[in-house]
């Protein structure tokens, strides 16, 4: 089977409904796929040249090539799901997080910014009160003012680069707990 030997497979993010999934014929020797936790998409859309999807495990995933646009407080297309979003994954290909893109997502706990994100705009995660953990790649060069301000629960930033590389990231002030939280260097990504 196509998934034979994929013993580390835990989640599958499926872009259709559970009924669609149940209509798929899965051949023999695909036990890892059958044992995986399947997450179904319940909302999706576009933002600029990018696509976004929210899955039933409260994960917002942004994919494509380009920048997440700037927004005004509360007008990002996923904002009507503010109470549902706990995890954000910004995938390879996305180059920047626009201003106020994830502003005020009160239940957001974890953010993973993949390797192509170079800038985080001002107020991008402002007032995400439940945000505890952020994963950042060594490609990041700038964090805008107030990007993490009022993120009162922020406890850990996992940075894929070295301490020396982190010191070269322009962190505009103020930025709340970002500069005083635990920074874990040379960290790999994961949720």
What does this molecule look like?
With 191 residues, this protein is mainly beta. Helix content is 8%, strand content 30%. The chain contains three helices and 14 strands. It has helices at residues 18-22, 31-35, 163-167, and strands at residues 11-14, 37-47, 50-55, 59-63, 66-67, 87-90, 94-97, 110-113, 119-120, 133-136, 142-143, 156-159, 170-171, 182-184. A nine-stranded mixed β-sheet has the order 1-2-3-4-6-8-10-12-14. The protein has a five-stranded parallel β-sheet with strand order 5-7-9-11-13, with no helix packed on it. The longest helix is centred in the N-terminal third of the chain and has 5 residues, at 18-22. It is globular, with a radius of gyration of 17 Å.
Short characterization:
The chain is mainly beta and 191 residues long. The protein has helices at residues 18-22, 31-35, 163-167, and strands at 11-14, 37-47, 50-55, 59-63, 66-67, 87-90, 94-97, 110-113, 119-120, 133-136, 142-143, 156-159, 170-171, 182-184. The strands form two sheets. A nine-stranded mixed β-sheet has the order 1-2-3-4-6-8-10-12-14. A five-stranded parallel β-sheet has the order 5-7-9-11-13, with no helix packed on it.
Number of helices: 3
**Count of extended strands:** 14
Segments where pLDDT lies below 50 for 5+ residues? none
Task: Estimate the mean pLDDT confidence.
Answer: 94
Spatial order of strands in the largest sheet: 1-2-3-4-6-8-10-12-14
- Helix and strand string, N-terminal first? EHHEEEEEEEEEEEHEE
For the CA atoms, what is the radius of gyration? 17 Å
Shape: globular
Tell me roughly what share of residues is in helical segments: under 10%
Hey, roughly how much beta strand do the residues contain? 25-35%
**Given the helix and strand composition, which structural class is it?**
mainly beta
N-to-C CA distance: 27 Å
| Main beta-sheet annotation | 9 strands, mixed
């Amino acid at each position: 089977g196509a998934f034979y030997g994929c013993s580390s497979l835990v989640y599958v993010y499926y872009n259709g409904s559970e009924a669609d999934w149940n209509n798929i014929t899965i051949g023999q020797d695909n036990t890892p796929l059958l044992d995986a936790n399947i997450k179904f998409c319940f909302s999706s859309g576009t933002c600029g040249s990018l696509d976004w999807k929210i899955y039933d495990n409260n994960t917002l995933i942004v994919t494509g090539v380009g920048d997440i646009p700037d927004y005004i407080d509360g007008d990002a297309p996923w904002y009507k799901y503010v109470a549902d979003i706990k995890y954000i994954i910004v995938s390879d290909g996305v180059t920047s997080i626009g201003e106020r893109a994830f502003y005020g997502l009160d239940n957001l706990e974890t953010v993973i910014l993949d390797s192509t994100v170079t800038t985080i705009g001002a107020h991008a995660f402002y007032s995400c009160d439940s945000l505890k953990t952020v994963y950042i790649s060594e490609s990041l060069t700038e964090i805008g003012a107030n990007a993490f301000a009022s993120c009162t629960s922020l406890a850990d930033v996992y940075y894929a680069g070295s301490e020396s590389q982190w010191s070269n990231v322009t962190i505009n002030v103020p930025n709340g707990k970002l500069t005083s939280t635990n920074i874990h260097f040379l960290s790999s990504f994961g949720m």
